[in-house]
Write a structure and sequence with these properties.
Length: 347
Amino acid sequence: MSKKSTIRHRPLRLGFIALADCAPLVMAKELGLFARYGLSVELHREVGWATIRDKIVYGELDAAQAPAGLVVAASCGLGSVQVECLTGLVLNLHGNAITLSQDLWKSGVRDGQTLRKEIARRDEPCTFGVVHAYSAHNFLLRQWLRTHRIEPGRDVRIVVVPPAQVHANLKAGHLDGYCVGEPWNSLAVLTKTGWCVATSEDIAPRHPEKVLMVRRGFAERSNREHLALIAALTEACEFCARPENRERLMETLAQPEYVGVPIEALRMSLSGTFDYGNGRIEKHPSFYLFAGEGVNEPSAEKADWVIRNLLTSGLVPDPLAVPRERGPEWFRADLYREAAQLRGKNT
């Protein structure tokens, strides 16, 4: 272990958002995995990704569940104070969907092509929500729109809305659609206020979604705890990936202190069968990938996917603001491998 590791006199503060893919953090606590690695951890549920980012940047949180793009954005000072951050663990691949309003369905929209026709017919552009400017949700929505010759900023407005608020805004008519993680797509289907037109796996197979985000300074000063945190969460990811554990997972996440939604909304994405709404139900065993070959390692390829999308989406006008060669400094496969060795010693 690094000689820079320090002894901590308070619990680690670990942030998360009320989403189904916070599951590894929740289950690491519920299964006693943090304690198994000698960690004292407090889970802090936050409102949105901007809050997560700010609390990481200013040291109010030691680590957090975060969209993969947030690590790069914070390190480059995109939309916030510049603070070097990194990840030593990818928590999951996939897990998002694009939801459109039931009003659009009633207008004849069934896919991207019919959405383009409806947009052309309207006097005002549609408004779509994403949960953060530099998250995969924004990348995926923009990619899907452009695939159907719908130009963000010209044909549709894209606004940032915290995950737990997108469904209420759709229901109130403030949004025509959104890209978000579960269960906020399924909740729209359950309440018949919306329907899903595409999942993130449909749009970008095996894209990195959530990661464990920390400041570089924390990773260096508290190396021992950081590696133990990665090890514990890797075990939790493997637990979440097993189909036989999904019922317990859903029951736990449904509790008010975690996601706090009806278990039916969680079942629609965690059971292996996904309900898109309006009668479309399909087998979707890999809606989430919590573990498996190549899933959890924060590889250079995953970093490159994030950086490439930041640049090609038009969100970062100056390519020099996000140096592609720095990807391996932000996505630290070496720390992931060190934590794997720690796991071996702990078994």
